[in-house]
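## retry 2 of 3
previous attempt timed out at serialization; input unchanged, resubmitting
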Amino acid sequence: MSTVSETAIAEIHRVATAIRARIGEIIVGKETIIDLLLAALLCEGHVLLEDVPGTGKTTLARALAGALGCTFQRIQFTPDLLPSDITGLSFFNQKIGEFQFRPGPIFAQIVLTDEINRATPRTQSALLEAMQERTVSIDGETRSLPRPFLVIATQNPIELEGTFPLPEAQLDRFLIKVAMGYPSAAEEEEIVRRSLVPANSTVVSPVVSAETVRTLQAAVRTVAISPPVRQYLVAIARATRGHPDIELGASPRGSLALAHLAQAWAAMAGRNFVLPDDVKVMVIPALNHRLILTAEARLRGQTTTVILQRLLDQIPVPVEGEVA
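## retry succeeded, writing output
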């Protein structure tokens, strides 16, 4: 690997460490969640956060945008939200006598779509082009979104009344799906302690520029994946397609997501090559939302997470000599 790439990999490791520390000034714990969000960003992917209200999803998204020096917008999804409320619209300006475009909140680098499953399917679909193509088409004109571009969507897995479940096509647009989880007793005590102390500022100062992030995103693709590791991650994805409890397994897009995330995870660790452990870490976040269980499996209380973990235990892992 070239010296330039090795320097970039070292910079990714440095930046990831600095961002983790800077966000830690606001968020207690959640280092793994922060790393997963950074990995998705480096892969130019999007994140679905699924958890109950009050676990810090919005605070985390704001802190991440601040640490990255990126613009941030939050969209509260409701049943009456219109696609134009997301993308923006053209209006006639009487003062100048012509139409003007008023950009919507999607024209930001970090976009938090809160409770995405509360909006109608028509409004949800307004995100599809933006997430996949990084563009928005309005009135026959295609407008590019700022880069880097990351959508962090949240949904409540418990409250289902008045919600519209995300279709498979939209779920597949998310690179990873993760749950924030409740803090430990010590972490929750620290959260309470911090809330009782007057803070000078809750604004997170950037540790890197948005332009640098784009450079690091390109460097991640230079991380090497040896043939045995490549075959290992493909075997995992393919195993989901023949499992008796899975009606719909991971598509080739899932294999690609797993490969790119493993590259990002290795780079964040300061390595320019992927290990099987990098793949293992990313299997559940990358694939659990891409699988559909059979009705019988759901009745038995099976979950995609448990099935993926069993597959990891069963599929042979490449040995060290083969990985090099």
